[in-house]
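Worked example 3 (structure in, sequence out).
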């Protein structure tokens, strides 16, 4: 369980990721397979990664997954195994490039990064 203030930051981060994913990131990581709509979404992977790195200072993927498994399981009940989580992160490498570009060009200019990711 995480404190209420961090709950609100997690929600804000997830909402921002969902908005930017739908508008700018979906095409860079779209999957053309039978599993194009996984139970654990790309937005959730991005949210956990950014939240744990930024707010919890977890810098290694193993630490991020352990934190999510221990403290964010109620928010993300379908969190996959560590191996599956790493594989999903690797598949989202192009989305991370586009997300960084979007944050640097539009997010910082509009104060989004400051309010959402801090």
């Amino acid at each position: 369980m995480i404190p209420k203030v961090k709950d609100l930051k997690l929600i804000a981060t997830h909402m921002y990721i969902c908005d930017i994913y739908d508008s700018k990131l979906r095409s860079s990581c779209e999957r053309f397979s039978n599993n194009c709509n996984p139970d654990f979404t790309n937005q959730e992977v991005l949210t956990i990664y950014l939240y744990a790195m930024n707010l919890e200072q977890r810098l290694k993927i193993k630490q991020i997954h352990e934190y999510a498994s221990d403290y964010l399981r109620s928010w993300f009940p379908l969190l996959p195994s560590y191996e599956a989580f790493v594989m999903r992160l690797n598949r989202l490498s192009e989305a991370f490039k586009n997300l960084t570009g979007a944050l640097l060009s539009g997010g910082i200019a509009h104060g989004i990064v400051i309010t959402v990711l801090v």
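Notes: The mean pLDDT is 83. The radius of gyration is 14 Å.
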